[in-house]
Amino acid sequence: MEYKILWNPWHGCKKLSIGCMNCYAFRKDAAKGVDPESIYLTDQFELPVEKDEDGEYLVPEHSDVLVCTLSDFFIEEADQWREKVWEMIRKRSDVSFSILTKRVDRIASCLPRDWGDGYTNVSLGCSIENQLQCDKRMPIFNSVKCKSRYLICEPLLDEIDLTEYFTPDLEYVLCSGERGKNARVCKMEWVEYIRDQCLVNTVRFIFEKTGSRFEKDGKVYKIPLSLQREQAKKSKIQLF
After folding, report:
1. Per-residue pLDDT at 1
2. Distance in angstroms (rounded) separating the CA atoms of residues 123 and 205
3. CB atoms inside a 10 Å sphere around CB 201
4. For the whole model, what pTM was predicted?
5. How much is the average pLDDT of 34-60?
6. Contact 157, 137 (CB under 8 A)
7. pLDDT at 240
8. 49 with 85: CB under 8 angstroms?
9. Is the peptide bond before 155 cis (omega within 30 degrees of 0)?
10. What would the 3-class secondary structure string for the chain be?
11. How many CA atoms within 13 Å lie on the side-chain side of 231?
């Protein structure tokens, strides 16, 4: 049995590019009266190595753990804590960790000394939102050695040509529109364009969510959060 677990060893982030403008984590913090740019350790910090009363890990073996969904794993303010996190990831070699970042320029300097060609239980992801950030981040991201990598186009804000950035170790490409009352439009034609590129390169493609404002055949639809995943699935353009 596989488990999908969110692990946020620290909380808080700083906006980096246009894709961060309507960040859901910032909205959640603002609603609670919390400063979203205050970066601090959480009570989850040692989650992968914590055990229950019977001495069993709280995170079961073969779990799929998503790291830092409420921050950026490679943010500078977390440099003092990251080595301890790498130690826990090494110790839990029976667990798969997925690390997504916009700060690809910091990856190489923040990897552990024994990284080599990558840890077998770590997959690195790059987040992009338009062609500008694609051309800026992907060459750097693809220069980093790792066992597997993935690409997240979320929020998808424009047409993106990925042609020169497909690599043999690219596991999948995921697309999603933007969520929230101020969400920018995501167009079906942009999603289909990326899907077609993945088809040519035999890479798995996932259309995760439409976003709150989705344009198809020239008409913009307002889609509630509860239906965004379902509507994306109904498009039937997932690959592999």
Report:
1. 43
2. 16
3. 16
4. 0.94
5. 97
6. no
7. 87
8. no
9. yes
10. CCEEEEECCEECCCCCCHHHCCCHHHHHHHHHCCCCCCCEECCCCCHHHCECCCCCECCCCCEEEEECCCCCCCCHHHHHHHHHHHHHHHHCCCCEEEEEECCHHHHHHHCCCCCCCCCCCEEEEEEECCHHHHHHHHHHHHHCCCCEEEEEECCCCCCCCCHHHCCCCEEEEEEECCCCCCCCCEEHHHHHHHHHHHHHCCCEEEEEECCCEEEECCEEEECCHHHHHHHHHHCCCCEC
11. 19
Q: Inform me whether the pLDDT recorded for 21 exceeds 80.
A: yes
Structure tokens at 55: 């001495």
Q: 227 pLDDT exceeds 90?
A: yes
For 108, the token pair is 């190489």
Alpha carbons within 13 angstroms on the beta-carbon side of residue 233 total 5
Q: For residues 225 and 191, is the Cβ–Cβ distance under 8 A?
A: no
| Of the candidates 210, 204, 200, 187, the residue with the CA atom closest to the CA atom of residue 238 | 204
